[in-house]
Amino acid sequence: MQTADRLSQIPPYLFVTLRNKINKARSEGVDVISLGVGDPVDPTPQSVIDELCRQAQIPINHQYPIDEEKGMLAFRQEIANWYRKRYGVELSPEGEVVGLIGSKEGCHHFVLGVANPGDVVLMTSPGYPGYRASIYMGNAEPYEMPILESNHYLPDFDKIPPAIVKRSKAMFLNYPNNPTGACATREFFSKAVEFAKTHDIAICHDNPYSEVVFDSQERLSFLSVPGAKDVGIELNSLSKPYNMTGWRIGMAMGNRQIIAALCKVKENTDSGIFNAIQYAGITALQKEDANIPKMLDIYYRRRKLVLETFEKIGLGFQPQKGTFYLWIPVPKGMTSIDFTTLLFEKAAVVVAAGTAYGLYGEGYVRISLTVPDNRLAEAMERVKKVF
Ligand SMILES: Cc1ncc(COP(=O)(O)O)c(C=O)c1O
Predict the structure, then answer these.
(1) Is the predicted pLDDT of residue 9 greater than 90, yes or no?
(2) Omega into 126 within 30° of 0, i.e. cis?
(3) Whole-angstrom Cα distance, residue 43 to residue 29?
(4) Ligand 1 centre from 353 Cα, in Å?
């Protein structure tokens, strides 16, 4: 069977490759500790679980979701309240907000909604691998804008070749950034708005780590910058702030035309989110803000442990202020793959090679802090013994 060419353009999904490697070693009896994947192990708040169970008993919720692809009005209203309260952004639940089956779904449907085959879609490198996949699935062409430490991991729009800018229809941005942990500034977002206006480019700011910031870093929505709604949307998600990755629930907000395009794609592909999950989502947004500082305390403690360990082994580095990832420069003379292989073979510790996130990820590895404390402590003990 010949499958579609577009699939062969997409490199194997990083985490599938990692999972295969881990499973093989485990089947041989190795006690592997994976710091590769960003998937919180801490539980979803109990009130959210209780609400799901309650709503799952109600027969009307077993039918197609209320308001189908848009998400139910009560959920959209709660998203608007959350955005007002946490980021000072005003949104109309009618036309400026849509529920998503996770932010990943939004990335994919954004491309289908705004780009034509052959259009260029700009993305950052290193960057979340899902953007490249979504761009290829939409038969568009990715262009990797380097984000380098020397520029605070922000892209320099002036360095994009004019011929590429001319063909560009859309752009993915993501701050706090996976994998680097870097946060953006209002000034940068304003520059992005200006660039998008000048060149008629639709922006998708993917913001699932908006709440995961440290050291007094400001929590920031792209939509809080003047003019942002004229050129783009923001995606967000309940996955990270409420430990709900498996529930598949998120949201897109902003420019009405892009939101309408997203809805049209969704209307013809999925039919929205299970009602009971949307009700549980409302509970999370309404009642579980206290979960966020608790979550941040856990990541802060784990972050400190990794920073201290790398300092002790002579590989100390300055961390960025966002996400539950640490983006760590590899020792001099080694590549990202050399370093991940060393840690895997000598310590049975899995970290993600920077190159899995694009060309400009070379020279780094990414560690995720979403593992239980005792496993992280054990991993750090093993890493110390390698050096
Ligand atoms: C930058 C980025 N965007 C989107 C996602 C997917 O999030 P969701 O669970 O909301 O689909 C992730 C998951 O790790 C991510 O890192």
Answers:
(1) no
(2) yes
(3) 28
(4) 18
